[in-house]
# Entry
Amino acid sequence: MIEQLEAIKNKTLTAVADASDVAALAELEIAALGRKSEFMSALKGLGALPPEERKAVGERVNAIKRELETAFAARRADLQTSAFAALAETEWLDVTMPGTKPPEGHIHLVNQAIRDITEIFSRIGFYRVRAPEVDWDWYAFESLNMPSDHPARDEWETFFMDAPENDKQGKMVLTPHTSNGQVREMERRKPPIRMIGIGKCYRRQIDVSHVPMFHQFEGLMIDKNVSVTHLRGVLDYFAQNYFGPDRKTRLRPFHFRFTEPSFEVDITCGVCHGTGKLGDGAKPAVSESAEGHESAPSGSRGVERCRLCKDGWVELGGAGMVHPNVLKAGGLDPEEWGGFAFGWGVERTMMMRTGLRIPDIREIYSGDFRFLKQF
Amino acid sequence: MNILASYNWIKEYVRTRESAENFARKLSLCGPAIERSYPQAPQFEKMVIGKVLGIKPHPNADKLRLVRVDIGKRKIDLVCGGVNLVEGMKVVVALVGSKVRWHGQGDLVELQPAEIRGVKSEGMICAANEIGLEDAFPHDDKEIMDVSWLKSKPGAALAKAFGLDDTVFDIEVTTNRPDAFCIVGLAREAAAILGAKFTWKEPFLAMPAKVTNRPELTVKVQAPKLCTRYQAVVMDKIQVGPSPWWLKNRLRLAGVRPINNVVDITNYVMLEYGQPMHAFDYDRLAGHGIVVRQAKAGEKLLLLDGRTVDLALEHLVIADAEKPVAVAGVMGGEESAVHADTKTIVFEAATFNPVSVRRTARSLNTHSDSSLRFEKGLPEELTQAALARAVELCQEAACGRVVSEAFDERADKTSKTKFPFRPVKAEALIGIHFPRPRMLAILKSLGFAVGARAGSKNDPRYEVTVPYWRERDIEGERDFAEEIARVYGYHNLPARLPTGEIPVELPSPELEIEDRLRDLMKGAGFTETLNYSFVSGSELEKCGFDPGKLLRVANPLSVEFEYMRPSLVPGMLTVIKSNEGLFPSGRVFEVSNVYLWQRGPELPVERPQFLTVVYDSGRTPADAERRYREVKGVLESVASAVGLVGVIMERPAEGAIWHPGRSAAISASGERVGAIGEIHPGILQKFGIDGGVAAMELDLPAALAAARPVQRYQPTSPFPPARRDLAFVVGERVEYASVEAAVRGAAPLLKEIELFDIYRGANLGEGKKSLALHLTFADPSRTLTAEEADAAVAGIMKSLAEKFGAIQRA
# Structure
């Protein structure tokens, strides 16, 4: 019996050495050591041996089996190593094939911007709200220190609704700015207020740079001891997070009825980096137009005046310290509470960040998939 | 509102040597914003005044002559074709290197040394249209510009000689500051901002000496609320003619067309002082009377711009004894205006109610430089100085003399406006500490009068008197802080993040869900569109809405934008229609408000809606089924994201937009939350959409109310589940939901069920479909045997056979 097993072993070892790949070896292993193998059937003879021999033979049999198993394992490792070494030759893919696309969806450009803006302000404690789009004259104008027939109202090309007037709150209008949310927020909760109101606004104009529906974001902070320096701090924080850490803002005097003082907010130009000039060899931001009487400030050639900005600054939007009359309209005592507000166009701010020069702003609301699928 | 202002003119009233560029920058940061600067001199570079010494015929050309010209340092020879050339004439000489417009046409051309018909010429003698001055100096073709009237010597630079060594600023003045909407006001601002001396002195009307034959004039104000001051003066010995160049030039640079000396003076005063004026021809005023009154119905007036307007009671007019002669504050009448033969004039300087002027200008659709200023509100105190200035200029430019008293009709003088000023309060608003004297000095530099100190040393209080030109815009103490801060420079203030309590505010569930839906849809391959909130009546009608019941814009931009949308569907169908040519199939969504209005004096309810659509050109029932299952898949994803439970479909969906056989209302937790299905083919037809559209609409507030977004832990089982597949044939109209209910009812150990195939084919027979299910069975306490699983499937099949006549497929 031992002889028989030895013979099987030798035959098998030769076959193992000859096995050309892992699959052949696996087949061989089943054939050599599997349940139906010659080796296993030979083992059936073991039970027939007298008990005194059985132990010695059994040990011998196990040794042979282990020897075979070791040989299989070693050969398998060898074969795998050489198979992996030859992978570059044996297996291949055209890596330049186009991919099969996962579903590709798109969030509207404006909603992406709204999300970015909300996120930045939320880090400094401003929570997002949304005021009505169809609102009373009271919230859109009157409570903002703009009595009816005030000429300041002319600046808002207002849509009126074909609806009955409210006795106390006047006409129903489409709000021309998100500032209607100011007094509403003062009514909704007690100070401190740090609101970022984002929503749709409407003005009666449509051309390449105006759409009758657009979005604004309205910041309102009401607290004790709020000063102009805090407004500057918040605006810088936003500008640096949204436009880039090297950007700065500045305030210039302006006039709005609902803030006092009021400001126009400028930001350093991203094209000329706030210098107002494009250095040697740089191309002007916008091609030179013939009609301007402007001339380059210095005679040296190659230094052009930046066409995107005024002396290194670009207008961002309006801001100001909340007018005492607005606080009173919101039920707050101006001697106790104060604050600031700003309200800017989402579309304009977004286009300034990305440098998207959308030549016709109406495209944003055209629903044209060729536009929507770009973002 | 913007004004064009000459820097030289401003500098008449403020002593400064700032370059135009620095002036513009500093003023913009602290006061009115200078939006553009137009330097004037560069266009006249290398142009000088020359004096013609001699004229000789050109040897080779009949129409040209050789001219010897003295240009100061030397004498040069030029070729010129000007027909009006005479010896001794002063002319404009453009030298080599200057830029001119040949014969007033084409682009500017740089002059090169030239030989004209064999004779060298070092430059040219210019016609007015060659240097851009034809408006001020109209001339015949071939006439060169005669500037003999200039005092300048030969060789003088043209820009200097013409007062054009100047820069014109285009300045935006905010509407609350009509006082700064003039040269003197800008100079006052500049003086405060630059710390320079403001040199303007208010002129006073000198009373006439004894005049014989004093012309009669009566002035009556019958509407003292609408005309709060009316001043007038009569001047005779007027010689109407063109204004001198300096006056014309100032108007020109300000963008105002010179007319004649008298009219030009009124415009000059308006630009300089901000007070509009008017001049009447005294002899054309019937009855030599002026009455300020409301117009009578039926009265008409021929205006200076050539239009005749119909007047009504709400219009304030200046009338003579018989008829209106001017619309107050808006525009004068043609008939009573100053004409070439006018000898005696009445100068008017008045104050009109801003609201009245604004309404009148609007209702007559006549806006003028005058109405623009009155609308902003002008102080009564301004008329005196303006009238005095006009008389002064008139005596200089039109030889007139004052021959009447200064008529002055005004309501009672109001007392001066005063407010307390607390520096501590101002500092708190601005956010930095200021030295007290600095604060007070800024106020004084702007014309405010500061009273003596009251209050404690640490918290003093001053009484500040507002100058008359600021009475309308200064409304309280806070304005003083503003004036101080802006003159100091907002750009000089530090930036600090606010300290203080951060308000606790939970995120709005509606805004949150909207954002989550966007993320989910983007991941699923859908494109978001944002449509206008407006829809047209025709879009609404196509979708079965009655526009008469909806919220309408009273002043829409066009019929496209007339109604506030009650549904996102009409806009979406328009978008599909406009895209289907280039994109024959698509997956789109929108999350926006709709406006539901009860037609009362209440605001509409603005409800955020979610609409998603799948469209393509397929028209078979199988296509419809595929599209439906896609939007249904979205609903299932949304339901699990939002926490909607117990979602059921009840057919059909309400509303004309839905296909009655292929749509359903969606409910969750017993509440109606939306609708789903195929858009009605009749509606698609009306929109011109060729294929099919499946849609799903969710009312987000309802969905949020129905949501149970509580997450609970479910213990994981150590026992493996048993899986079986089952396919069977049922009738076409057997609903899956009833099949699923039967399956679940028949097998308590069933954990999961998934429909993985629907098959129809001739081998099944007409009106039959095969459904194939993955079934998963499990017991939380033990491993199921194969026999138990098989028995459960058999039980299911038995139940399906009983309920639906289902036949198992092999």
Observations:
- Chain A has twelve helices and twelve strands.
- Chain A touches chain B through 92 residues (CB under 8 Å).
